[in-house]
Write a structure and sequence with these properties.
By secondary structure, this protein is mostly helical. The chain is built from twelve helices and three strands.
C-alpha cells in the first residue's frame, strides 16, 4: 500500500511558500482522493501506524488551511473527520505521538463555536476534554490553544469586553490560524453582545430616544437598521423616536434611572472607539 502520492501532496501543502487558494483547494481534493484510495478516512485498529499518522496529518493540514482561507464550514467538516483519529489510543500511532495538531485544531473549533454564540456545544466539547485530561492526570490550563478560547468565553460572560478585544488582536493570539479570523469574527460577537447590553440599559434608563441618537448608541449603520432592531426587541418606532414599552411592575425611582443612564454612558464611551473600527 503506497503512500508516496499522499506524502508528496502533504509536503506541497506545508511548503513555506504561499500557495494560491485555488492551488490549496486542488491539492486538498487530491489528498482526500488518496485517503479514499488508501481506505483510511475512517481509522481502524488494524490500520498501520505510518498510514494512520499520515492520514491524521493530512486532515489536520486541511483543517488549518481552511481557517486561513476563511472557510469555517470546511474547517468544521475536517474537525469532524478528525474526531475518530483523536479517539484512537496513542499507541496506535507507534512512536509518532508528539506531532499531532489536536490541541490547535480543537482550540480553533472552540473559538469557532464561540464566534457563533454556540455556548452549549462549546461547553460540551470542553467538558469532554476535561474528563479526558483528568483521566490522564493532566489539566487544560497549560495548553495555550485550549486556554485561549476558554479565557475569551469567561471574559465575555464577565462582561470584560476590553480584555476580549485586546486578546483578539494578532499579537494576543497563540498562532497565525487564530489570528486569521478571531479579530473580525469575535469583533462582531462583541458588537452584538455590547449592543444587547446597551439596549437593555436603555430600556431601563429612558422612556424614549431619538432614532438618530439610538443609531450611534447601538453602533448601527442606518436609521432603518435601528427600526429593524427596535421591532425585534418589541420597541415602538414612530415620529422619529424609539419608545420603550413600560412594564406595569416597573416602579422606577429617579435614582434607578440615573444609575441605568450611567451604565449606558459608561458602556458606550468605554467601547465605542474600538468597536467602530470593525462595524
Amino acid at each position: 500500500m503506497s503512500t508516496s502520492n499522499l506524502s508528496n501532496i502533504v509536503s506541497q501543502l506545508q511548503t513555506p511558500s504561499p500557495l494560491s487558494p485555488q492551488k490549496i483547494t486542488s491539492l486538498l481534493t487530491s489528498a482526500k482522493r488518496e485517503l479514499l484510495t488508501l481506505n483510511v478516512l475512517i481509522p481502524t485498529p488494524t490500520t498501520p501506524s505510518p498510514i494512520l499518522v499520515l492520514a491524521r496529518q493530512t486532515l489536520e493540514t486541511g483543517a488549518l488551511l481552511s481557517i486561513r482561507l476563511q472557510q469555517p464550514d470546511v474547517f468544521t467538516r475536517y474537525y469532524q473527520q478528525l474526531l475518530p483519529f483523536y479517539e484512537m489510543p496513542e499507541s496506535s500511532y507507534g512512536t509518532d505521538t508528539n506531532n499531532s495538531q489536536r490541541s490547535k485544531v480543537t482550540g480553533l473549533y472552540l473559538l469557532l463555536l464561540l464566534t457563533k454564540g454556540d455556548y452549549a456545544a462549546f461547553h460540551t466539547v470542553l467538558e469532554g476534554l476535561e474528563v479526558e485530561q483528568a483521566g490522564e492526570g493532566k489539566g487544560l490550563e497549560g495548553d495555550e490553544y485550549i486556554s485561549y478560547p476558554v479565557k475569551l468565553e469567561r471574559w465575555l460572560m464577565e462582561g470584560s469586553y476590553d480584555r476580549v478585544w485586546g486578546a483578539t488582536k494578532r499579537e494576543g493570539v497563540p498562532s497565525e490560524e487564530f489570528g486569521a479570523f478571531s479579530e473580525v469574527q469575535l469583533g462582531q460577537v462583541l458588537i452584538g453582545t455590547i449592543r444587547d447590553e446597551i439596549a437593555s440599559c436603555s430600556e431601563k434608563a429612558y422612556p424614549s430616544l431619538p432614532i438618530a441618537n439610538a443609531k450611534n448608541l447601538l453602533f448601527l449603520e442606518s436609521e432603518g437598521s435601528v427600526v429593524e432592531f427596535a421591532q425585534a426587541r418589541g420597541w415602538v418606532a414612530k415620529d422619529g423616536r424609539i419608545y420603550f414599552p413600560q412594564q406595569q411592575e416597573d416602579m422606577r425611582t429617579e435614582k434607578d434611572i440615573l444609575v441605568a443612564s450611567g451604565q449606558v454612558i459608561e458602556n458606550t464611551i468605554g467601547y465605542s472607539r474600538s468597536l467602530e473600527n470593525i462595524v
